[in-house]
Amino acid sequence: MTVHNLYIFDRNGTCLHYSEWSVHKSFHFSQEFKLMYGMLFSIRSFVSKMSPIDMKDGFLSFQTSRYKLHYYETPTGVKIIMNTDLGVPSCRDILHQIYSTSPLKVTVKNPLCSMSETLQSELFSSRLDTFIRTLPFFSVRAG
Amino acid sequence: MAIFSVYVVNKAGGLIYQYDNYVPRAEAEKTFSYPLDLVLKTHDERVIVSFGQRDGIRVGHAVLSVNGVDVNGRYTADGKEIIEYLKDPSSYPVSIRFGKPRLSSNEKLMLASMFHSLFAIGSQLSPEVGSSGIEMLETDTFKLHCFQTLTGIKFIVLADPRQSGIDALLRKIYEIYSDYALKNPFYSLEMPIRCELFDQNLKSALEVAEKTGTFGPGS
């Protein structure tokens, strides 16, 4: 089991943070963040129309044959997206922890960090990296 | 445990079959006095609640009937605009029925092609090479399962999150499609499926899936 990468978007679609641990793809799109945000935005509207009953949390995750995308959105519109492999169970509480307790807190409480552009804080990056590396299902596969 | 609906999408993203198996009704009727304690707005030719939740009425619910008479889009049955009608204190007390708006057939077509592109983007954004598109999409109220055949047709089933045996059901629907739609001499490829046998067999497959959750070999 492994964690591939993690995106944090604000409510306007700006990518606040991106980090990756094990990504095995041949190339990156130049506008990958926009594509990702656009897809999530469409999924949110798709899901709210498709749902036969009223939703509380809305979209939680999707999976393909190779990976699973976990999604968490706060009431203020911050979106945290984590891609893992298929064996990982629901990560809602972990994504919530990234937002509430450990890593993101250091940036919100830092008056020098603007919350509407890419986060430059080194403390945040290193805390997030440590946090992800201590997750029970984190292990980078060889190769 | 329930299976909500089935969609079949052709390889160009067109919806060629749709069936609603079970639609839970969440409707609330209430008598209001002036002024209305909900904020209503017009959206997509419907009057929906934009703010305020009470007694089973939720944000996003549409006005279905006023004083027991079904509305016609954003107009009442006798042709007045609902929003204007509700602004007039002399129309109170008024009884309004709210409910989750049903999808029109146009919206279903749109959603099917929307999923078609989401499916493609899902595979492009994969952190691993060689990924398929979205196979399962999970929300707190339903799970969407998608099976794409080698020929590019997508079978999509919306079901309760706890419903089991959907993978087998999707393959069963593919089997029914190849047996009753493709072998029908009046069916032209990539066009909407209007075959009675396909309907019947699909319905019974859904019943079996809901009851047992699985298909045994040769069922």
Number of discrete helical segments of chain A: 4
The Rg value of chain B, from CA coordinates, equals 21 Å
Largest interface: A-B, 41 and 41 residues
Shape of chain B: elongated
The overall pLDDT average of chain A reads 86
Q: Helical region count of chain B? A: 4
Low-confidence stretches of chain A: none
C-alpha end-to-end distance of chain B: 21 Å
Number of domains of chain B: 2
Q: What is the CATH architecture annotation of chain A?
A: 2-Layer Sandwich
Instruction: Give the overall shape of chain A, derived from the CA principal axes.
Output: globular
Report on this structure.
The complex is a heterodimer of chains A (143) and B (219). Chain A is an alpha+beta fold and 143 residues long. Helix content of chain A is 32%, strand content 21%. Chain A contains four helices and five strands. Chain A has a five-stranded antiparallel beta sheet, with helices on both faces. The radius of gyration of chain A is 15 Å and the shape is globular. Chain B folds into two domains: 3-23 and 104-211, Beta-Lactamase, CATH 3.30.450.70; 27-99, Pdz3 Domain (Roll). Chain B is 27% helix and 27% strand. Chain B has four helices and eleven strands, in the order βββββββαβαβββαα. Chain B has helices spanning 82-87, 105-124, 166-181, 196-212; strands at residues 3-9, 15-20, 27-32, 39-43, 46-51, 62-66, 69-70, 94-99, 136-139, 143-148, 154-159. In chain B, the strands form three sheets. Chain B has a five-stranded antiparallel beta sheet with strand order 2-1-11-10-9. In chain B, helix 3 packs antiparallel against helix 4. The radius of gyration of chain B is 21 Å and the shape is elongated. The mean pLDDT of chain B is 90. Classes of the chains: A alpha+beta (143), B alpha+beta (219). At the A-B interface, helix 1 and strand 3 of A face helix 2 and strand 9 of B. Strand 3 of chain A pairs antiparallel with strand 9 (136-139) of chain B, so a sheet runs across the interface.
